[in-house]
Amino acid sequence: MFFDRPDYGEKAVLVHLKLADEQAAEDFLEFQLLVDSAKVEAVAHVMGSRRVPTPGYFVGKGKVEEIRQAVKDNEADVVLFNHALSPSQERNLEKALECRVLDRNGVILDIFAQRARTFEGKLQVELAQLEHLSTRLIRGWTHLERQKGGIGLRGPGETQLETDRRLLRYRVKSISNRLEKVRKQREQGRKARKKKNVPTVSIVGYTNAGKSTLFNWITDANVLSADMLFATLDPTLRNIRLPSIGTIVLADTVGFIRHLPHNLVDAFRATLEETSQADLLLHVIDASHPDRDSTIEEVEHVLESINADNIPTIQIFNKIDLMDIEPRIERDDQGRPVRVFLSSKNKTGGEELLQAIGECLEEDMVQGQLCLDTAYGKIRAMLYEREAIISEDIRQGEGEAVSYDMEIKLPRRDWEQILKKNDLQSSQMPIKQSGQSS
């Protein structure tokens, strides 16, 4: 399988260029953390700057020679670039350097391959690796004849490369079908929670911001939490109870990173749907990160790419134990919680966090008295379907007229969907607060 790895480490030469294009620029310190997370020993660093990358090698010919010498002097096994390389650039570099070359995306894929534990996680990683490999197949066969030969195989048959591409397409299709089944199973679970009016709160954030430590603290779970990038790959769901809301589902998800490879986002779409379908997001932020604002922007960019940017969000500023900040809640002009400052490591600020979650979920719930006559039987049926009716009294009017007085409670967006499906405005279907006079 593509996610199997040998147990031994590797020696690597790290290459980082400072580019004029700020959007394409990468953080070298973050890349070093990625390499450490991949369990690779960095034996040399080659730094430089260019206005634009070269088409053939990404770096200039002089820098290629410098890298080649660093590989030779340090007996390195691999050269790792802190940039996204094209397939042709990787091939050219491997030929010139006479060793393996991986770009930033390849390093991230390797980390994911090491960390995947569940069957679903391994499938997602393999799919991402196959998508990445599909454009790089040719380099694996440059030492062989293009045409298959041997007794019974001579003639105008397909080339070895074509055979490999066909097998790869078959494997990608097979994995995609399996992941589609997983996606449907997750969707069924979400529908079941929705029917029971169980809100889902999803923890998101930049990798190594402390999401899993926070998750373990709040839920008493035992998810792997470590000071490394992408410690968590497989999503974990746990139930917790809030006094004002009842049971909610808390989801721990994979971390995001700057320039997250598109094939990873696509492969993990089934997992990321837990985020895009959540009722509330907890955006965990490393308050001590030197480039904190950039990490916030990157997470918001990924949330936008998975259509989760319109979900109510609380920013959780974690690791305040590294700064002179006390646990607290910050609110907007309407009094809604927008930020919580806490320390997952020292377990301070937990009460403030649960209070903020409760307030936001209460605000996002519709609860009160609703009176319907028989003309609105479809709405009544839809409320029952969502198990939103707490109690109901049936009143007999004049003749055969019947009306239903009910106490309802359901997420606001579910209520808005019901109104939309029945071509109604909220003003046409008023809900009175419990105890409110007519």
Structural account:
- The chain is an alpha/beta fold and 438 residues long.
- The chain has 13 helices and 14 strands.
- It has helices at residues 28-37, 61-74, 87-97, 104-115, 119-133, 160-195, 211-219, 262-267, 269-276, 292-305, 350-363, 377-385, 412-421; strands at residues 10-19, 40-50, 78-81, 100-102, 200-205, 236-242, 246-252, 280-286, 313-318, 328-331, 337-341, 365-373, 389-396, 402-411.
- A hairpin with a 5-residue loop joins strand 10 and strand 11.
- Helix 6 (160-195) packs parallel to helix 9.
- The longest helix has 36 residues, at 160-195.
- The chain starts with 9 loop residues before the first strand and ends in a 17-residue tail after the last helix.
- Residues 1-8 and 139-155 have low confidence and may be disordered.
Give descriptors for this structure.
single chain, 438 residues, seven-stranded mixed β-sheet, four-stranded parallel β-sheet, 14 strands, disordered N terminus
Furnish the topology, listing elements before pairings:
Layout: E1 10-19, H1 28-37, E2 40-50, H2 61-74, E3 78-81, H3 87-97, E4 100-102, H4 104-115, H5 119-133, H6 160-195, E5 200-205, H7 211-219, E6 236-242, E7 246-252, H8 262-267, H9 269-276, E8 280-286, H10 292-305, E9 313-318, E10 328-331, E11 337-341, H11 350-363, E12 365-373, H12 377-385, E13 389-396, E14 402-411, H13 412-421
Parallel strand pairs: 1-2, 1-3, 3-4, 5-7, 5-8, 8-9, 9-11
Antiparallel strand pairs: 6-7, 10-11, 12-14, 13-14
Helix pairs in contact: 1-4, 4-5, 5-6, 6-9
